[in-house]
Design brief:
Helix content is about 35%, strand content about 25%. With about 250 residues, it is of the alpha/beta class. β5 and β6 form a beta hairpin.
């Protein structure tokens, strides 16, 4: 299948032009025009590139690409990465905030649904757009914690609120900056990925419960769901490359 037929579909499906982002979303590196296999990974890295080549893929789709705010210089690591991709005719496509924010297969919507909660409200304002979701439930904090640990393994948390959990909001990845918004919007439980030092006093002063499921864990659901969409709609072979960072 033609590479640009696939990338045009992704651009439209993810609405990549609708979201401000430091990531240069879309096709970052153009390789082979004919694509028989596409692989998917959370992070673009030499390891994911090498695995993609070993799997005979012509396209790698990542949540975190290699081009952020453009390219200043093609030297050092940037040179080595681009050189490897071009020499192996491996295309690289990135979908950052558009994949977090997607209402069907986005990371934040899927994390809520993993708790049995339907995304009902947009949440997490970023440069004038909302990238997260909030929804309503009737569950105990420890029940929510247990459900998340069954899916993602052991997680970190800060419990400064009550046991009753009605409103839950999610911003995947490095989302601690949205604790204040969660407090302002009467959220009982805020879920994000990466734990940050500044989150402690924000959560404590705001009397809110926060669960950190890990940056990588919080951003695997969307890329896996996108892979299934591409396989279904494009009819090409796909595979997920799992390179957990434990962060």
């Amino acid at each position: 299948m033609d590479l640009h037929h696939i990338t045009d579909f992704l651009n439209d499906y993810l609405q990549i032009t609708q979201y401000p982002d430091s990531s240069v979303n879309g096709l970052q590196i153009e390789g082979a025009i004919n694509v028989e296999k596409a692989v998917f990974a959370v992070d673009a890295s030499m390891e994911s590139f090498m695995q993609a080549v070993e799997l005979d893929a012509e396209l790698l789709v990542c949540h975190h690409g290699i081009i952020w705010d453009g390219i200043g210089r093609i030297t050092g690591l940037m040179k080595e990465r681009i050189k490897f991709l071009l020499e192996n005719e491996l295309s690289l496509y990135a979908a950052h905030i558009p994949l977090d924010a997607h209402p069907e297969i986005g990371n934040n919507a899927l994390i809520l649904r993993a708790l049995g909660i339907e995304p009902e409200e947009r949440f997490g304002e970023y440069r004038g757009v909302s990238i997260g979701f909030a929804g309503y439930a009737d569950m105990d904090f420890h029940d929510a914690l247990e459900r998340l640990e069954r899916r993602y393994g052991k997680v970190d948390y800060m419990k400064f609120g009550g046991d009753e959990t009605e409103k839950v909001a999610v911003v995947s990845g490095r989302g601690s900056a949205y604790i204040n918004e969660a407090v302002e919007k009467n959220v009982d439980l805020f879920i994000t990925g990466e734990i940050e030092h500044s989150a402690y006093h924000q959560a404590k002063d705001g009397r809110i419960n926060v669960i950190f499921i890990g940056h990588y864990n919080s951003e695997t659901p969307g890329i896996k769901a996108l892979m299934n969409v591409v396989e279904d709609k494009m009819g090409i072979d796909t595979e997920f490359i799992d390179i957990p960072t434990r962060l």
